[in-house]
UniProtKB/TrEMBL annotation:
InterPro entries: Amidohydro-rel, Deaminase_MtaD/DadD, Metal-dep_hydrolase_composite, Metal_Hydrolase, MTA/SAH_deaminase
Protein name: 5-methylthioadenosine/S-adenosylhomocysteine deaminase
Role this protein plays: Catalyzes the deamination of 5-methylthioadenosine and S-adenosyl-L-homocysteine into 5-methylthioinosine and S-inosyl-L-homocysteine, respectively. Is also able to deaminate adenosine.
Cofactor: binding details: Binds 1 zinc ion per subunit.
GN (gene name): mtaD
Enzyme Commission designation: 3.5.4.28, 3.5.4.31
PANTHER family for the chain: AMIDOHYDROLASE-RELATED DOMAIN-CONTAINING PROTEIN, AMINOHYDROLASE SSNA-RELATED
Pfam family for this entry, one: Amidohydro_1
Amino acid sequence: MSDTAAMSVPRPCDLLVRADAAVTQDRDRRVLTDAAVAVKDGLVLEVGGQAELEAGYEPEQRLDLSGKLLLPGLVNGHTHLPMTLLRGYADDLPLMDWLEKHIWPVEFQLTDDLLDTGARLGCAELIRTGCTAFLNGYFHEHVTGQAVIDCGMRGVLGEGFFGFPSPLFPTAEDCWNTIRNLETRFENHPRLRTAVTPHAAFTVPPEELAASFALAEELDIPWQIHLAESPTETAVCLDKYGKRPVALLQEHGLLTERTTLHHCVDVTDEEIALMAETGVNVVHNPASNFKLASGMSPVQKMLEAGVTVGLGTDGASSNNQLNMFREMGLAALMGKVRAEDASAVNAQAALDMATLGSAKCLGWPELGRIEKGCPADMIALDLGFPNLMPVFNHVSHAVYAATGMEVCMTMVAGEVLYLYGEFRTMDVISLKTKAREAAKWVCNAAEK
């Protein structure tokens, strides 16, 4: 018997959302028609049929999404939000040339004001395309944190660092203090968390990786790193340390359930088995891997081995979008080609990666689902778009047919952030002006 069947009088709730259908991503992966969701205090009270919930609840507000498909908010498992400032700046280059000759020289000149503009641009793009939470890795992360607070999203902030000394941190202790201060600053905010974020195994020495992992354990927060992104990275690790990236981390005890690995393109079957055994999380970034010609991650093998796989866009400079709908489609298509099997990385698997899988990669497993007791983070697709007609399979449409531009509503913790073209928590007009000014700055910085 449902909660509502036992009620004699309707219960109060803050919001009752109605939609033609809802892909819940709950434990049973239910897809409901004539669906409704009751929300109170930012959490889902109940999910069910419209007639049942209308009879069982007395809402303060109603949101009628007739003709729409309700989905959990998508979760971006790997991005560098302020890199929106470098979108299109250095295209069509291999990974190491792109980083060393173009991206890093400009990044190290960025100011807090510019980072704020980039972070807010990123938030606007994520909200517009149905993403409600993300795992970030950049620097001066307090700036991105404030942007997240203001726009109403969720974020996990990762203060990025390289080997020491670096242009960002003269010593390791400077970096550890910055991370501790970031955690203290946002520890009581319901929509912000932090992570320890070394850049990669080829840019941070093993002893510093181990020290940073100890810090993550001390603070009890996730530890994330780019790993095995390309054969070139593997070659550098072999040359420096005589070990492949996965083995290097294993040697230092860095493969655990606390660990989230980004990319994992150049990994062997034995390494995949080790990743499954140790319980690490992996974030797949198909668009970025394609664009940088890094290769195709063996995602189907990881899924079959039992590895938790999430999905991310990477930064807007190597993608060049922060659109998780495009990422889902690419993940499914790449997975089929990589496995030489049309049934590999099917639509449900791709959606799982963009919701439940990414949520686990963030260390926030209650996200990515519309389920009783979970945060009321939801989005809606307008099924009236020609590319979404007719509907035979809602999950298939979300992965293969949707572009992200059909998103007509984005909600976090029961608060609507975007509805029918209107950003409710952001001034996108002034943001456009700041973006144009930032573009001029990038051009000048590139000449220095």
